Amino acid sequence: MTTAETSWEVVDVLKEQNGARVSDVANELDLPKGTAYTHLATLREKGKVVKNGHTYELSLQFLSIGEFVRNNDPLYIAGKEKVDRLAKETDEYVHLVTEDQYSPIYLYGASGEQAVGTKYFMQITQKTSYFHNTAYGKAILAHLPDNDVEEILARDGLPSKTSNTITNREELFDELELIRERGFALNDEEELRGERAVGAPILDKNDCIQGAVSITKPTSRMQDEEFYETIPRRVASTADAIAISLQTDQA
Predict the structure, then answer these.
(1) 186 forms bridges with which residues in the sheet?
(2) pLDDT tens-digit readout, 31-51
(3) Exposure on the CB side of residue 160, measured as CA atoms within 13 A
(4) What residue spans of 100-230 are helical by DSSP H?
């Protein structure tokens, strides 16, 4: 492993542990304590890490880096206003998500007046999440090349979050085929008990997946026709509008 690779591994440890001591980093990465200290000291010198007592933490410089990357992302630029509008019109929580290096990347979320789970959705932007148990994730997964889907499943498996989570490969592939046919994905309490979600893919002119938009509501407020028809139409319409903006903005 190169010096640069090790430094990024150290950054990952500080993120996952929300701060760590030299010994924690050394143990986690199986490094000599002196080597762990050297990497932390270098990151601190470059302003990427701060030290509070004996604990090293990521600095706020990462915030400016993340904001820069997001604010220059074409999907975020094309989708933010439309996500805000859908959240305001439905009074619920709306998500804009993309895929990068086989992981779902949470680009943006907007909450309406009745939105629930805001704290939870803020937290998932900071953690690794899965494709198979979310509406936006399944909408993306359904339009990725088969080799990419196999890579994701080989790495992540199909861990269960609730009793409704799909944990069988054949069942998942059947659902992905259904998603491609009907143009939207459903999450029926597969990530969180008491909540349903509908997601739709954002495709480019060549039908390549760019991301997905989804809306989450309590099960009590998204029953039958709304879950299977009304909300899917609204989410799909928003996804199409974002796709059009992407094409025209990049023309």
Answers:
(1) 198
(2) 999 999 999 999 999 999 999
(3) 7
(4) 118-124, 135-141, 146-156, 169-182, 224-225
| Both structure tokens of 150 | 């196999």
Q: CA-to-CA distance for 205 and 192, rounded, in angstroms?
A: 34
153 token code pair:
């499943």
Cα distances (angstroms) measured from residue 209 to each of 125, 127, 134: 20, 22, 16
**Residue 76 buriedness (CB in 10 A; 0-12 / 13-18 / 19+):** middle
Which one, of 128, 147, 127, 149, lies nearest residue 138 by Cα?
149
Q: Which two tokens stand for residue 146?
A: 């088969």
Identify the three-state secondary structure at position 21: coil
CA nearest neighbour of 217 among 195, 189, 185: 195
Which pTM does this prediction carry? Answer: 0.85
Per-residue pLDDT tens digits for 222-241: 999 999 999 999 999 999 99
> Cα(185)–Cα(172) distance, rounded to whole angstroms?
12
Q: Is 167:190 a contact under the CB 8 Å cutoff?
A: no
Residue whose tokens read 């028809």 = 229
Contact 204, 247 (CB under 8 A): yes
Predicted confidence (pLDDT) per residue in 91-149, tens digit: 999 999 999 989 999 999 998 888 776 666 655 555 568 999 999 999 999 999 999 99
Give the integer Cα–Cα distance in Å for 31 and 27.
Answer: 7
Phi/psi-derived region of residue 211, left when phi > 0, alpha when psi is between -120 and 50, beta in every other case: left
DSSP string, 16-71: HTTSB-HHHHHHHHT--HHHHHHHHHHHHHTTSEEEETTEEEE-THHHHHHHHHHH
Please answer whether residues 226 and 214 qualify as being in contact, where contact means their C-beta atoms are separated by less than 8 angstroms: no
